[in-house]
Amino acid sequence: MLSLTDITLTFPDGDGRITAVDDATLEVAAGSVAGLTGPSGSGKSSLLAVASTLVKPDSGTVSIAGVDATRMNQKKSARLRREQIGIIFQQSNLLPSLTAREQLLVMGEMDGKRANRAARQREADDLLDVVGLSAHRDARPAALSGGQRQRVNIARALMGSPSVLIVDEPTSALDRARSEEIIGLIVDLTRELGTATLLVTHDLELMPRFDTTHRMVDGQLSLLPAPVGASA
Amino acid sequence: MFLARRDMVFARGRFTLITAVVLLITLLIGLLSGLTGGLAQQNISAIQSLERDRIVLAAETYDESQLTQEQLDAWRDAPSVAGAREVGILRFQIDPTDGDAAGVSAAILGGTEDSPPRDGHVRLSAGAAEDLDVADGDSVTVLGMDLTADLLDEDRWYAHTPVAYVTGDDWQEMETRLGRDNSVATALAVDLTDNADAEELEQLATQTSTTANGTVDSLLAISSFRSEIGSLLLMVGMLFGISALVVGAFFTVWTMQRTGDVAVLKALGASTPSLLKDALGQSLAVLIAGVGGGILLTTGLGLAIAGVLPFVVSWYTTALPAALLILLGLAGAAFALRTVTKADALTALGSAR
User: How far is CA A64 from CA A1, A78, A120, A141, B99, in A?
Assistant: First the structure.
């Protein structure tokens, strides 16, 4: 479960400070997807940065799997991200030198965890199978299409069975058909793996796929009414 | 090293290039170090072999030094001096009495521990014997003196000339034949007592207008050595500096290019130490490959040319430069690590790479 309570985040702006997130509260239950929309500059990315522990808020608490992340130092935050948070970036942000399979294994290897290597390799193969890329596991990013790269991005985020999934506009570079496909995959995996998923998108047509939808304007968060036909 | 290894395979062209550059720099440093060592040995090995606590000279250089009897007596009588040996040095041609070989210009040292035990003999260092093409018991001529040759196993040199040893009396006779009747000795090789008083020695040197330095320090009194070693060491030092800059510059640019990747890894939870370990491991792998290859080539080439050129293949011309190059290269690469530590994980969110 992801719980953001009374989050306020400000940034320096000349002599004063600008409020990027203004007293925002949001809860995402395990196995559900919360959509977050809003105009550019409204504070969506700032809220996402706070939820993924990349930025500490001025006030408020971020609770991930029952742990208050706002009290953690950088080292512990990094560990929390490694173990509990999966991030799906706007662009796939894959490392050019690694194959699809290695993209999933790199974090465990960087961490020096040799003991569970075989288990991690099995998990990576399973996840690539789930996202439909078993046949491309040895391909580097340059040899993959945009949709395939985004699938690797998704599989990478799900390595280690994170309890929270942070998704930053995953379909911005994809066409309609591929966008539907990717969002469908994320929603299905959220249900199947029981992650609490917070997903930022500009695409209002995707909103019916989410359990809840929030809108952010000028740093203020509001819950939108569930549209007719929303998936539950 | 998971990522580092794959980066190196992926960008093999760039890494091959930088490894080749490191290899060539290492080869250059190795060859220059070997040559510096070889040239140094051709200057100093005879003086090094004296192995005494102090070498007393009457001037700043061996070439100018001519000790008087008063100076010798003053040093011999000093309470801090346990023993002293008068050493004479002159340079003249040695000619083989028989055979077709040409004469050899040699440094003739008299009165040393390596001098022959009897007058009328000359002990030739290996290089001199080879040039003269003489064997044990053959006869050679110096300044009209017929001398019987003994051969020394070692190669000894003084100021780029091969060395021959004679007795103190024969050296005096040669000086007389050169018209230097009053010459007593060039240097005094001194052993000090266990409780030698450094201040007393300093005062004595001042009073007698002499200098007294350890054997190693006195090497700078060999004019040719002093003029060569400074410039050669400067070149070696500059090459070390260039090497550190080249490796540092490469890894700085390389790491800057990878800043986006580093930010992604940080966002995904990679710890800064693990990223630093990976980056430094990559530098170390390149340095070991480049420096190792360079040193192997240097050793091979050095062994091949050692008989033709003054070249020393030794730990101080191979292992020492290699270790220094790796250390300096790592220091250079460490500058690049600032990019890793400063990479902002936040930039991975919303970035389009």
Answer: 6, 13, 23, 31, 97
The yes-or-no verdict on residue B79 having pLDDT over 60 is yes
What residues contact residue B13 under an 8 Å CB cut-off, 6+ apart?
A: none
Cβ contact, residue pair B270, A79, below 8 Å: no
What is the distance of C-alpha B170 from the center of its chain? 33
Nearest by CB to A54, from B270, B274, B346: name it: B346
Q: How far apart are CA B90 and CA B68, in angstroms?
A: 16
Q: A197 at the B interface (CB within 8 A)? A: no
Residue A96 in contact with partner chain B when CB distance is under 8 A: yes
Note whether A85 contacts B269, CB cutoff 8 Å: yes
Contact residues on chain B for A111, CB-CB shorter than 8 A = 270-271, 274
At A113 the pLDDT is: 65
| Distance separating alpha carbons of residues A196 and A184, to the nearest angstrom | 15
Whether the pLDDT of residue B160 is over 70: the answer is: yes
For B85-123, write each residue's pLDDT tens digit: 999 999 999 998 877 778 889 999 998 989 998 999 999
pLDDT mean values, one per 10 residues, chain A (232 residues):
91 87 91 90 88 91 88 86 88 90 88 76 90 92 90 89 89 78 88 91 83 91 71 45
Cα–Cα dist B344/B339, whole Å: 10
> Closest by alpha carbon to A160, among A125, A124, A115?
A124
* pTM check: above 0.80: no
Measure CB to CB from residue A110 to each of B278, B346, B350 and give the nearest one.
Answer: B278
Helix (H, G, I), strand (E, B) or coil at A172: coil
Alpha-carbon distance of A1 to A197, in angstroms, equals: 9
In order, the DSSP letters of B18-69 are HHHHHHHHHHHHHHHHHHHHHHHHHHHHHHHTT--SEEEESSSSTTT--B-H
Contact A52 B9 (CB under 8 A): no
